[in-house]
Write a structure and sequence with these properties.
Structural class: alpha/beta
Strand content: 15-25%
Number of helices: 26
Largest sheet: 8 strands, mixed
Distance between the termini: 41 Å
Helix content: 25-40%
Oligomer: single chain
Number of strands: 26
Shape: elongated
């Protein structure tokens, strides 16, 4: 970040439908409070003078059954805040449980996006488990602090669903809970700061996870837009009243208001049973249910359809017609007005969810002057403690829920005290301005720590406009004077050039030889003939996406058995073997050659890439692994065009890299194995050996077109 610039904060929230205007809250189980939270947080952060850019990064959806807005790449939502939509997975809309296989694609597209805007985030803040997994991978690649907000935790949900009678098998099949919990544990291990909404969330909910570091947790309650959510004014006319009152025989009775998604975890069934089985409650009040927006129950997803159909069956079973309203459509602006209408009629807001990490609707109701009855969990506990505006209940006890609603509605003096306390408590404790002040205070030490421990960020891979990758032995090293000139050139161009090495050596031996020749740690290391990729000039990070890419039809033990009796080859020491590299020494005039090795492997029903180099080494790799494929992968992942990538080598194990489509340089001291490449397009053979040859190749390819020649090739 340049001196004088403010913070660039990237918020990542992947699931649901996110747009700046009229968010479709309640449309489905994935488009609820989290969507509103991240939108409000993005806008609030962007208003702070220390912040110059906020991006709310989410999924781009190109589907006919959702608005075209969700397919737009950029949407500005405040002066310095944007929604950035990146494609990953199929074009169609997917629920969060189905997004996980495609998360690596989001990481790749985010890296390309950062290159396109010429800046990487100073802070990444992930929301929910899926974004947390993405956040871990991104921050390890660009060395930014990772903040995480869980919103809802897998272990807590799992326990609540078990308590409700669902079996572990059903929970796993429906919610893929094992994968989610594993992702959450990974995030807890790597995040620099976990932001929780309540102390109960820290103590009890995160307490269900092993080895949680409490020093990396902060309780910062979210805010509410106090401009939208306010008490009713005397004589105020409510436009939404007609849409609600058409359901009710006696519409002036107090309202029991519930605002929630059609999700079985929101526990709508218990609320309707509590109302339906209490004659006193039915006589005293009406039940108003804002359960998402819908056109036709038959067209909504199966899980939501089940909840809505159950709602209608229970209304019919208890004959609640005339006492319960359940309008099909409402906007986010309508909800604020419905809160005020409920308060004007002396009503109560109810949230009987099985678990509630926070519950923004509770603060919205409090700010609107509406007392609350809510589940005795997380957010409700903290809000009622701070505001003193409601009653906590066991969400599985319908009788107790009915009793608490009666208690709040019947005592009008106590109702007024609770209403005033809620308004006062929301104003003092739950503003977005206060949230942002605490938020920025907590991340400043993280930034100082990062600057102290990391002299140069891995962001070089994201921000450089060129990538230069060299073989080590007999290319980069071999002539100390030439190497010194090359390193001087590289140092002068570090603002533009990301530097990497590609070698047959394993990682440990690569680091050793770089140290011996006083070569600064590269931005990227391709080792084991392309079988491994690591990033970082200090702490190394393995590219696990490359590991998953090449892990295909690879069977080390069977390959060793297949080649056990081949004459003229013998296994290299264990230190030179890797998970995806099987290496042999070769007796040049004894072994049968690559054609026979390839035939034998095929006859055994196996698969491997065969690399023969320096007339003495034989390496077997997975068929998707090689130096060349690693170069192509890096270009795709980090957003380089192949014209912006230059590779240099000298031996047979560099051939695939030189043919990758990048600009190729074969130094003068090359082995005869590369002669067949002479005359190939985009590959130049130099007049100079070793690192002088690399510099010559840079000039001849015009790799940095604005630069003066790097080497006097006339000698």
């Amino acid at each position: 970040m340049a001196e004088g610039e403010g913070l660039f904060i990237a918020l990542i929230s992947l699931h649901g439908l996110i747009r700046g205007e009229e968010p479709e809250l309640g449309r489905d189980a994935d488009t609820g409070g989290q969507v509103l939270y991240v939108l409000d947080l993005a806008r609030a952060l962007a208003e702070h003078p220390d912040v110059s850019r906020v991006e709310l990064m989410t999924r781009q959806i190109l589907a006919t059954n959702v608005d075209a807005e969700y397919g737009e790449h950029l949407e500005q939502i405040a002066d310095r805040a944007w929604i950035v939509r990146l494609p990953f997975g199929p074009h169609r809309y997917l629920y969060k449980e189905n997004l996980w296989p495609y998360l690596p694609q989001f990481v790749d597209n985010a890296l390309v996006h950062f290159r396109e805007i010429g800046r990487v985030p100073d802070v990444i803040h992930s929301h929910y488990a899926d974004a947390g997994v993405v956040g871990v991978r991104l921050t390890r690649l660009i060395t930014a602090p990772l903040l995480h907000t869980g919103h809802s935790l897998g272990r807590v949900k799992q326990q609540r669903l078990l308590d409700k009678g669902l079996s572990e098998e059903v929970i796993e099949e429906r919610y893929h809970m094992g994968r989610r919990i594993e992702g959450e544990e990974q995030v807890l291990e790597h995040a620099d700061l976990i932001i929780a909404s309540t102390q109960q969330e820290v103590d009890e909910q995160y307490g269900m996870y092993a080895d949680v570091d409490r020093s990396r947790m902060a309780v910062i309650p979210p805010g509410v837009d106090l401009g939208r959510f306010r008490p009713p004014r005397r004589g105020e006319v409510f436009k939404v009243a007609g849409e609600i009152d058409r359901f009710l025989e006696r519409p002036k009775k107090p309202m029991i208001l519930a605002v929630q998604r059609p999700d079985e975890r929101k526990n709508l069934e218990t609320l309707i049973r509590a109302f339906g089985e209490s004659d006193a409650l039915r006589e005293l009040a009406n039940l108003v249910l804002l359960i998402g927006a819908r056109d036709d129950i038959d067209t909504v997803p199966k899980g939501q359809r089940k909840v809505l159909q159950q709602m209608l069956r229970l209304i019919d079973r208890y004959d609640l017609y005339g006492s319960v309203a359940y309008p099909k459509q409402h906007s986010s602006e309508d909800i604020a007005e419905v809160y005020r209408l409920a308060a004007a009629r002396g009503g109560v807001f109810v949230n009987p969810a099985l678990t509630e990490p926070f519950g923004l609707t509770l603060i919205e109701a409090a700010a609107s002057g509406l007392p609350i009855v809510a589940t005795n969990d997380g957010g409700p506990q903290e809000i009622v403690r701070i505001c003193g505006n409601g009653v906590l209940i066991d969400p599985l006890d319908a009788e107790a829920l009915a009793g608490s609603l009666l208690e709040v509605l019947s005592d009008r003096h106590q109702w007024r005290l609770r209403a005033r306390a809620g308004i006062r408590g929301a104003d003092r404790n739950f503003s977005w301005k206060g949230h942002v002040a605490q938020y920025l205070k907590r991340i400043k030490p993280l930034q100082r720590k990062r600057r102290k421990t990391t002299t140069v960020l891995r962001a070089q891979m994201a921000l450089a406009d060129r990538l230069l990758v060299c073989d080590i032995d007999n290319t980069l090293i071999g002539d100390r004077e030439a190497l010194a000139e090359f390193l001087s050139w590289l140092d002068a161009h570090r603002h533009r050039v990301a530097f990497g090495v590609a070698t047959g050596r394993v990682l440990e031996r690569t680091l050793t030889v770089l140290e011996e020749w006083n070569i600064p740690r590269p931005d990227v290391l391709i080792t084991g003939v392309g079988s491994e990729i690591h990033y970082g000039r200090q702490d190394l990070v393995r590219d696990l996406n490359w590991w998953r890419t090449i892990d295909y039809r690879w069977d080390t033990l069977s390959l060793r058995e297949c080649l056990a009796d081949v004459p003229g080859i013998r296994l290299q020491p264990a230190r030179d073997q890797r998970e995806f590299k099987l290496s042999y020494f070769v007796e040049r005039f004894v072994w049968p050659g690559t054609r026979e090795i390839r035939k034998r492997i095929k006859d055994y029903g196996l698969a491997a890439s065969i690399i023969y180099s320096h007339h003495e080494f034989l390496d077997l790799l997975p068929i998707r692994a090689s130096k060349g494929r690693a170069i192509q992968y890096l270009a795709r992942r980090w957003g380089f065009e192949m014209d912006e990538v230059l590779v240099a080598g000298d031996s047979g194990n560099d051939a695939d890299m030189l043919r990758s489509g990048a600009l190729g340089v074969v130094v003068k001291n090359h082995s005869s194995e590369l002669r067949y490449l002479r005359g190939r397009d985009r590959i130049c053979f130099t007049e100079w050996p070793y690192a002088h040859g690399i510099l010559e190749g840079i000039d001849r390819h015009g790799f940095l077109p604005e630069d003066q020649p790097t080497l006097d090739v006339e000698g």
